[in-house]
Amino acid sequence: MADITQNFSQLLLTYGPGAMMDLPDNAVVVAGLQDWDYKGSSWKPVEEERLVALLKQQLGDKLSSTFAGLRSPPMYDEERRDINAPGVGVRLFPEWFLINEAPGKGTEVAPAGAGNEKRRRMVEFTELNVTAGGKLSYTGSGGKIGVNPIRFVGACTKGHLQDISWRYLTHRGREQSCRKPLYWVERGVSSDPSDISVQCTCGASISMADLYKPKFLGTCDCHSPWLTPRRIAGETCAEDLRLLPRSATNTYFAQTVTVISLTKSNDKLRQTIAEFRSDIDSIRQLPGFVDFLKSGLRTKDAFKEFSGEEILQALDSDDGSGVNPSAHPHIAEFDMMATGAPVIGSDGTGSFFYGETLPREVLKLQPPWDKFLEGVVRVHRLREVTCLYGFTRLEPPPTPAESELDEIQLAVGGADLARNVDWLPAIEQLGEGIFLHIAPEFIKPWLDADQTVAKARDLRERENRDAARFNREPTHRGTAYWALHSLSHAFMAELALECGYPLSSLKERIYSSGPAQADRFGILIYTTTAGGQGTLGGLSNTAERINELLVRAINRLALCSNDPICAEHSDGSEEYPLQGAACHACLLIPETSCEARNTRLDRGLLTRTVLGNGSPLLS
Question: pTM value?
């Protein structure tokens, strides 16, 4: 079988440990971290002290006591294609299969019955033949026949995954010891659950529609087929097992946390120490370790311009974390970019961040943007680190962006990536962007207006309703977040027309403080890519045209092609309480670009719609 490869982003965000994947010949589940094999190749640590400190503080017992930090996934090696090549393991799942039709061979596929009925034999993995190349087949009366994995499995909201007990369910109330052949029976071509059934030749049968009924499948058996062992003796789960199509969009929701790497107070030496933290920690107990540092193959070029005394002083004044792990990563990022300094960071090789605060005379801001914007930073270089720490099924977890700005809370209720988590996978990407520092003096009077206060009460009630749907505590981001998030989407759509990057390649970070927090309001629009070169300046070079782009973005929001229906949804709906006047024609963007899954959006908070109501920030 040919090598199957995925890029790092796909591996972490879509096909991480526990995710189901269809390969050309088999269906599999991606194995846990214990089967991510580097095969002797040197794995690359991902240095990000703030993120490691946050993970240790938030995840606690979910991490091993010997947790060693972050590392990149195994890199595919074109020159090593044998069994010793580095790679990510997968495991066969599900273990029930349907036999394919093979006309003219007298196969185990029964002839069509009345009403265009199609019957296919169901078999388990233990009944199949496996070739050296990994292909599966069933030996029937007419020779070897191909098989397809069954389309339905069982899962719970805690991430457990298992095969359906097809024999047990089919024979409920009948002879449980029956081992006669089972058949998958489909009537017509609609694929409606009521037209699909599982039938035994003994006469027992069950409709697929029954399997969708609440509690019909019973409680979860705590199976985790991507882990070793797959089930721990005595482990229990009180969640109901639910039917899950393997190709459904709710089979896997990655739990990730992302930070933008900081400069170390613009200190090049401190930044270099941060980049080589693991190398330093491994030799620091040695006598004369500074000499090793200045002569090591990996570190000598980076530290050659610094004296031993400078290195020791910087290490003695460094607490090893550089951040309060309870603090939201956005705070440090905002404070770094909002200093107003002409140059932020450095332009040297290996720099994590480099930006320029543009002079106001260059921006040529017109009302209301001259008062709305306190500063604009052209971000020439930034480094983004994303870590995968768990996942959920069936229901999406809250994102770190949904926590209050003064303190981040990771969603720790997801499934584990390994029984013993000694490290976590992460990717680092380089890019560029634009940071808008928004003046608190412009935002706060609007927040205190009577209309806005009334709107804030409505938004809180809608956030409560949405949290109740998923049986979790509500998070209230505030009216300012809703407005700035809506502006961010409109601005991104306008940038995509100008900067040369598609909208799906842009990302956002919204900085919006709550009532009892220090004033921090801002928007970072950026793009990143893997590799050493990052991006080419098309986005950051549009910063000087910020006034023109924002004016066009707001003007486009005044009228949506779906008005008046879109505008009428400003108060939300029962099904989508976190969406106001926002649709695919005006504010919704690819979800990979949005930090909040296209929620908390309402263009009525920015400008007057065709209905003429609301409390717009910019009208």
Answer: 0.82
